[in-house]
Amino acid sequence: MSGRKQFDVDAALDQAMRVFWQRGYAEASLDALASATGLGRGSLYGAFGNKQALFRRCLDRYTDLYGARFEQALAAHPGDPVRAVGAFFEVILARIADPSVPGGCLIAQSAAQAPALDGDDSAKVRGLLDAQRRRVRAALEGAPADASTLDALASYVVAVNQSLAVLSRAGASDAELRSVAGLACATVDDTLSRPASGPGARG
């Protein structure tokens, strides 16, 4: 036996992720991160590198935990993009309502603090938002609308998702959040129900 204290890397990342999720990058001090993970500063640096490296690992961990759920929801209703978007929002609302995790969304929290991030970290957060938009866009593929409309709808759905996170942090009730999500689904349905027109329309 080496005598070294062993620890669960994923469990430590989960605890660090909660600190970034709750406080944001700027307010997530090394002392708070060390306390949450149960690691001293030296062990924290030894295991994960500096604060920026730990933050990136936490973003990856968050994506691993929730990205697959988003993909499954969006893929659950092939050929029915409105139901797919509704399932996507259900996953989001379930996460928001989960009392075991902080309110809101780590990506939304990080995007709001983009000025406090360095260029690489800010680009990573933006990349995660873009990946989410691509997932939604894939679920809309084949709908009777031109490509520019589908692109705009995908961006709209992601924007509503981020808004739900912000509203939940501000104390909005589940009923209020569900009302917003329901209106967003109705907007998607209404937009896709309009006759396609213009040079990019599908013939």
UniProtKB/TrEMBL annotation:
Annotated protein name in UniProt: TetR/AcrR family transcriptional regulator
Every HTH tetR-type domain range: 6-66
Residue ranges of DNA binding: 29-48
PROSITE patterns, alphabetized: HTH_TETR_1, HTH_TETR_2
UniProt keyword list: DNA-binding, Transcription, Transcription regulation
Tagged with keyword Lyase: no
Organism: Nocardiopsis suaedae
Stored InterPro entries: DNA-bd_HTH_TetR-type_CS, Homeodomain-like_sf, HTH_TetR, Tet_transcr_reg_TetR-rel_C_sf, TetR_C
